[in-house]
Amino acid sequence: MDIVIDQVSKSYQRGEFVALHDVSLSIASNEWVFLVGASGMGKSTLLKLIYKEELPDRGRVLVDGTDIGHVPGSALRRSIGIIFQNFRLLETKSAFENIAYAAEVIGTAPRDVRRRTLEILDLVGLTDKARRLPSELSGGEQQRVAIGRALINEPKLIVADEPTGDLDPDNTQRVLDILKRVHREKRTTIVFATHAVDVVDRLGQRVVRLEGGRVVRDSVGGYWEASQPA
Fold it and tell me: What's the rounded Cα separation, in Å, for the pair 166 and 146?
């Protein structure tokens, strides 16, 4: 699933705060791209435009060749796995139920929901904690449940907004290992926003740097290379 951001601008507070200014960016199918930059530089806004939580003031966003302005957001998000920094789990549902719910709401057959949920629990290393509530899991385990929920519908695109921001080094590595496996085996496109230098430097993928709502660097390499003037 490829993405084209075509001369996109987005502002808030009646134009007083410009989150993105005339941004153009292409991401190929099966590519892994890091979005980096300080807080408030436009990373989260760009991700929200991709999965249509926000609409651009100007410009177009195309996902898999389709202008998403003409697609219902709910339909678009069925083919996108979204991972948030703060997990957003359903507190009254177990790990199994949180992951399964994302498949149930789109009408997946119960037998397939169970099979796929068990497969995902194995992938994220939580088979033995399937019946635990979020409050009974560590932060790293909760994030792995959230990743499982994002993967259950076999998305062609994963959008991750600071998914390791609140995790310790060991859990950060677990999250990266899961995503690397999905990227390799499923040929999934991944757009990963982060300010974590070590996360970017471990993978050696494409890095797009945002400053003041503009793309100021687009290169392959580490975080600091992306920080240098183009």
Answer: 13
Higher per-residue confidence, 166 vs 15: 166
- The set of residues, in sequence order, having a beta carbon less than 8 Å from that of 158 and lying 6+ positions away, is 80, 81, 82, 83, 150, 151, 179, 182, 188, 189, 190, 191, 192
Give the other-Cβ count within 10 Å of 127's Cβ.
14
Distance spanning both ends of the chain, measured CA to CA:
28
Q: Which domains does the chain have, with CATH numbers?
A: 1-79+155-230 (3.40.50.300), 89-154 (no CATH)
Each residue's pLDDT tens digit, 5-37: 999 999 998 778 999 999 999 999 999 999 999
pTM to 2 decimal places: 0.92
Q: What are the structure tokens assigned to 93, written together? A: 């549902």
Q: In what order do the strands lie in the sheet with 66-67?
A: 17-27, 3-12, 58-63, 66-67
Sign of the alpha-carbon dihedral angle for 169, 137, 134, 82:
positive
In whole angstroms, give the CA distance from residue 230 to residue 225: 9
Partnered with residue 158 across adjacent β-strands are: 81, 190
Q: What pLDDT does residue 216 have? A: 94
Question: Which residues, in sequence order, are CB contacts of 172 under 8 Å at separation 6+?
Answer: 164, 196, 198, 199
